[in-house]
Amino acid sequence: MTLLSVVKDVCARVGVTVPSAVVPAVNANRTMQEMLTCANEMAQRIAYDTRGWGMLTETGTLVGDGTTIGFPLPANYKRLLLTSNVWRSNARQQPLRFIADPDEWLRRRSGVGETSSWGEWIIFGDNLRIYPPLAAGEQAQFLYLNKDCVALSSGGHGDAFLNDADRFRLDERLLKLGMIFDWKQNKGSPYAEDMGTWSDAMAIAMGADKPMPIMIDRYPISANARVAYPWPLPT
């Protein structure tokens, strides 16, 4: 479904005039201004605030030169996944240690020689910083969430709808249901049932986005497990 198709369905549901265009009409039609704003907000809320969607997950790769410590984040970077680590290509047994506090990072770089043997990383100033520096040709990789949740009709991806033919990269029904409850909420209309319908659809979509853990057999019980019991459980 295109942006126009989604907005038509939303308008029919909330009781406003079904449009023939959205983006071309925003300067002359207050309702379409609000619909476009609602579509962009809901698309970004679904894409950014709920989970690390597989469709939007990207791999960032940094290549060392022997001296560089700070690497610019990718142009489409939104945030790290909740379980993201940074892995060096020459040390796959253990990720780099994350330093949460920039002041602690500065203290550790102040010449006292306190550095994890696996290396350390932090993000600040739009840079992902790694110490000690990656050797020339050495790589560091991490997973992050792509902010570009809209497939642009002109080609490529973006983080907002620019054309009536643009499409939401995730399930467009989630966008439609979310816009319906958000529109009603903003207008002071009862919206609890519509929000519940959207929440149910979100729960199903999120559950399908990541396989369920395997509880019995030769596999870890969790995708986050580092070590698991390697034999079938007794029955």
Please summarize the sheet with the most strands: 4 strands, antiparallel
General shape: elongated
For the termini, the CA-CA separation is 49 Å
Domain module tally: 2
Mean model confidence by pLDDT: 90
Oligomerization state: single chain
What is the number of beta strands? Answer: 11
Order of helices and strands: HHEEEEEHEEEEEEHH
- Total DSSP helices: 5
Low-confidence stretches: none
Using only CA atoms, what is the Rg? 23 Å
Q: Roughly what fraction of the amino acids lie in strands?
A: 15-25%
The percentage helix is: 25-40%
User: Which structural category fits the helices and strands?
Assistant: alpha+beta
Overall description:
With 235 residues, the chain is an alpha+beta fold. It is 31% helix and 18% strand. The strands form 3 sheets. Strands 1, 3, 4 and 8 form a 4-stranded antiparallel beta sheet that branches. Strands 2-7-6-5 form a 4-stranded mixed beta sheet, with no helix packed on it. Strand 5 (97-98), helix 3 (102-108) and strand 6 form a beta-alpha-beta unit. Helix 1 (3-14) packs across helix 4, helix 2 (30-49) crosses helix 4 and helix 4 packs antiparallel against helix 5 (192-209).
